[in-house]
Design a protein that fits this description.
Rossmann fold; six-stranded mixed sheet; 9 helices; binds adenosine-5'-diphosphate
Length: about 260
Amino acid sequence: MSVDTVKHPDPTPTATPELIRLENVTKRFGGHTVLDGLDFSVAAGKHVTLIGPSGSGKTTILRLLMTLTKPDEGIITVDGDQLFPAPEKKVREIRKKIGMVFQHFNLFPNMTVLRNITEAPVTVLGLSKDEAEARARELLDLVGLADKAGARPSQLSGGQQQRVAIARALAMRPQVLLLDEVTSALDPELVAGVLDVLRDIARSTDITMLCVTHEMGFARDISDQVLMFDAGRVVESGPPEKIFGEPEQERTRQFLSAVL
Ligand code: ADP
């Protein structure tokens, strides 16, 4: 057996099944505390939904995980690796494990749908054009747009563009998919198609999902755990049956009665 093929023991035998962990995370903008000593974790393969009023800090959590902003205090780990501080190379490695879909789909307007999906796998992961295209076509099939590979984003509806953005995120084979109010910018009649695709992905893949949404029916359907936020803190968490069926906190009841 050559040295290269010797099986080394797992270098991280103490790694927990938690894919994401936030410990005592605080984030301030100016004098305003947006996240206030937040602790929570997401186990691999689980679907966790963040609900709560606007401005309660939900999107900031996703942006921290994408390293788009930094915490003022606390520790964030992804798959056992700490972000902030981390060497640039490590940050890039961690970022490859995370895909994000935004409220505004941000597709490259001058590229075809297919090229939107193959671009990063080719340039970042080093896939061949053929491999990337085969993967992209499978994903277009998954999001119900197999016939749109050659279209430009401007030729698609908002819902279709968002489904392309979902395929584009999945093309990087991330371990975690972050979804930030992905249907909020859509016309109401286009929302269901996007949510159906996400339900399908939640059911048929083992991807971990962390999802900020105002779609309570969707949250109830796909979540293993729901976290109710208010003013940068988790006021209540639990399985969807508990949060939507028998919430314990008055703040949760108020919020749900306003949005349901
Ligand atoms: P949510 O997703 O729950 O609506 P956010 O995480 O977007 O909440 O925002 C939480 C708070 O942080 C809000 O009061 C928002 O105005 C503020 N905030 C978010 N990003 C910035 C920023 N880049 N600069 C200043 N304030 C910000």
